[in-house]
Amino acid sequence: MAITALDPNTALIVVDLQKGIVGYPFIHPIEAIVERSRALLDAFRQRGLPVVLVNVTGFAPGRTERPRRSEALPEDWAELIPEVDQQPGDLLVTKRSWGAFANTDLEQRLKALGVTQVVVTGVATGTGVESTARQAYEHGFNVTLSVDAMTDANPEAHAYSVNHVFPRLGETGTAQDIINRLDTRGA
């Protein structure tokens, strides 16, 4: 579905653009994903809209069939990449699961700011981005996804999320589509 509108108080959520993750072998060049996410960050900040930067520091405690990393993560693994240019007014959410709302205070912080809609971008499409979008939808936020500002290491996971899951959660479009809608939000 095309982007038809943005609410007057829409927040941007950028998922896991951090030093330990951006070097993974993604299906799209990470530089382009970072560039489009940065364009969104600049646009939201220029308009005084809330920006949420999300990083992940570990794993949820549940058992899985896949083995967990046994080696220690590098000290700077969870640091946001410099390109996101974290600002004092940005909200930082540190998570230990795929979604940014699980076991964090993100919902309360956004609702306290009067946010009714979120735009989600980042990595990885089928895990962090999708989980955050699903949780936002379940918490009653309108959801918009910038599909050209996200990527995944798994092409099938990326395609499934973009083509089958995201249209059920909200509206999808490009970073430029979203930037173009920012000045007509609520109109």
TrEMBL record:
Pfam families: Isochorismatase (PF00857)
Keywords on record: Hydrolase
Entry annotated with the keyword tRNA-binding: no
Domain of life: Bacteria
Domain Isochorismatase-like: 10-177
SUPFAM superfamilies in the cross-refs: Isochorismatase-like hydrolases
Name by which UniProt lists this protein: Isochorismatase family protein
Taxonomic lineage: Bacteria, Pseudomonadati, Pseudomonadota, Gammaproteobacteria, Pseudomonadales
